[in-house]
Amino acid sequence: MMSRWIKIFQLSRTICRLNFSFLNVRHRLKEQLDIYFIVLLCFIAGMIGVFYYYYFQIMEQAYTGLVEFGMANLFFPLILSGLSIILTIISSFLLINLFCFSKDLENILLFPIQPCDIFTSKYISNILFCYGIEILLLFPVCIIQTEHTGDISVIITYISAIIMLPHIVTFPLSVIVTICLKIAMYLRRMRTILAVTGIGIYLAGNVIYRVATADLHMNLEQNFLSGVTQLCTPFPFYDKYICLNTGLKLFAAILSVIAVVGYYYLSNFVIGIKYAVYSRQVRLIAAKMKYHSSSKLKSYFSKECKMFFRNPVYVINGLFGIIITPFLLPFSFRVSAAAESIEQIRILVTAPEFSFYATLFSLAVIVLTSSINVIASSSFSREGANLWIAKLIPYGLKQQAFVKILFAVIVSFVGIIINCLIFKLYFYYNFRQIFVIVLAGTLFTILWNTIGVFIDMKHPKLEWTNEVEAVKQNINVILSIVVCIIISAGYFLIVMKMIQRCFTPFVITGVISCSLLVLILIVCIGITLEQE
């Protein structure tokens, strides 16, 4: 039995390396380090440090605010509730990716390993990833609460919560995914649809149950605070758990670790000793087959859309910065500024003497957020082993590169529209400012995507076993972001010099637009000079 668990943990380690290895750091550390890799690590560490700084500030403001209102006891359950929501979303996507989209399951089934061992290994990989997210998010929170309360037992409470929470969140999702995969095996189809549907029903039912319970509790006690407390309960029996002493909390955490055995018996009971993955059945009826002729541009653009939107890994990593990032600006103003300050900012934005500076600030936000874009800088790498097919089709690689740029620009333009809607509806920008922001922001977006495609076209990452590697472990993505940030800093210095020398807004806007067009033309010429 012990040898079986050793194999399970070895397999889970291999699965973690395939899915969670960032830029192949473990391989690069074994080799001789070069200056480029050291600078890249320092840049990433600096970005993480900036994120931690602002995250620490927000958490400290939240805790001091609750203390001022006399609701310090709500801080810990609120943090755990928010963390449980994050872990639920991450675990849902990760389980669907590990069992429905990852191609390693079909290959691992060829080895002399029982299906329950494979399933248990994937569940352990999911739990380990949740542990990493918990440590990153709860470490500053634990420091803040320990510093303010001066109680060492708070650390024990956080440690036990870190150990227990992933099992509480993941186990129901694991049961649902396992049952859905077993049903899909009998049906020989709809593996992804059944898993997504099962998780969706569970999450919707959980939300409805929590809201109904909180509403009932509020009506019985006629107390709004008790309803909020009931709604923010992170897991069942939380009130009884928080009243335990330190030793019993540690004992409960140890029991949750031993509960990993339950994943093995769950898989063994539901899946059994036989499991097979059936591909989607393709039925071709020659008599009813219709062929439609379309242009090369339309066909290749349709191929780009299907390859991108059919893979959740590409969608999540590509659209996360475009959809989520624009909402961080009003959120940061809402957290750090009072209502009177926001009203003053809105009045200041439309003032004639400050309107151009407000336009430049909004443009800087769009420029920096659009520079962190993985769609263009991984466009050729996403082809993987199928790039030889792209070289054989009667459509040159140069033309394919410009279609990839067009697709990336269209997707990025959605982020510009969202930003402009926020600037208009939240900060009350006028239409003239919005027009300048859209014009200059579109030019910057075209330049960033052209640079990304150009870099990835030169040295694409074609050797990968998982779609995650083509995006998250691609050095071209980091290189494209660094180049775009350096160019952004150059434009910032140029604009600052022009403002100091009292150039008019029309001249500044014209210089930015013309220089961007020249840079776009230079990069496009570099793409056309690329040998087929």
Could you explain the architecture of this structure?
The protein is mostly helical. It is built from 24 helices and no strands. α4 packs antiparallel against α8 and α6 (115-149) packs antiparallel against α7. The longest helix is centred in the first third of the chain and has 35 residues, at 115-149. The radius of gyration is 26 Å and the shape is globular. The chain crosses the membrane at residues 35-55, 75-102, 123-146, 152-181, 193-212, 248-266, 313-333, 354-381, 401-422, 434-455, 475-494, 506-529. This is ABC-2 type transport system permease protein.
Q: What value does the Rg take, in angstroms?
A: 26 Å
Described by the principal axes of the CA atoms, the overall outline is globular
Share of residues in helices: over 70%
Q: How many runs of DSSP E, i.e. beta strands?
A: 0
Number of helices: 24
For the record, give the distance between the C-alpha atoms at the N and C termini, rounded to a whole number: 56 Å
For the residues shown, what is the average pLDDT? 78
Summarize the structure.
The chain crosses the membrane at residues 35-55, 75-102, 123-146, 152-181, 193-212, 248-266, 313-333, 354-381, 401-422, 434-455, 475-494, 506-529. This is ABC-2 type transport system permease protein. The protein is mainly alpha-helical and 532 residues long.
